[in-house]
Fold NAD(P)H-dependent oxidoreductase.
Amino acid sequence: MKVLWIYAHPEPRSLTGSLRDEGLRALTELGHEYRESDLYAMRWNPVVDREDYALGPDERLLVPGESAAAYESGQLSPDIRAEQEKIEWADALVLQFPLWWYGLPAILKGWVDRVFVKGFGYGLTGDGGRVLRYGEGKLAGKRALAAITIGSRAMPFGPRGINGALPEALFPLLHGTFWYTGMSALPPFAVHSSDRAGAPEFEAAAKGLRARLETLATDDPISYRPQNGGDYDEDLVLKPHVEPGRTGLAVHTRG
């Protein structure tokens, strides 16, 4: 496989950094190709602005339209184009980051904001004007894995834990970014109590990460419902016969 590893942690000597090194070493030993985007080392700019789209100072910035026009005309900022080329090259993406405030570090959120522009990550249509998202789109066929370090213990992220079940806590990323753009979202790999880990915990985490990478091509993805698979009505609400009486994020998965 060809794997793009997007790494977002400011300290390479952290547990997250050490796991990154183990993961890339494992990919090589497993015979995969990889490319890396180390966002802090790249000094990645996370802020969307008019310079992304070669827009003049007096022109009004309407992000969706201007990003689509710049993408189609080849006028996107070179750093954005470089990341899109990596994504197009890859069969799978690994986003590795510490979970901060239930979400992505700002630098990684900004990578998503700037790279997944209209025409590339969203805003695509198919036959008959069908909108291609949630399982369809330019990135369909690719796999995406979130590899996360979390300060909290595992139990608070259980189904009755105060933090909520991890796949639901990560719903904006797994469903709203990976699946929305067409990528198959794999169950996340998480290392809990990361700020209290010693050598034994690191060894266990490295072993667990290697095991996930060994099955990167074969693991079953989360069974999210496709938008155009017949389960949703014209308002993108589940039809009455689908999961009747149930609500919540879990209804958007099958099985």
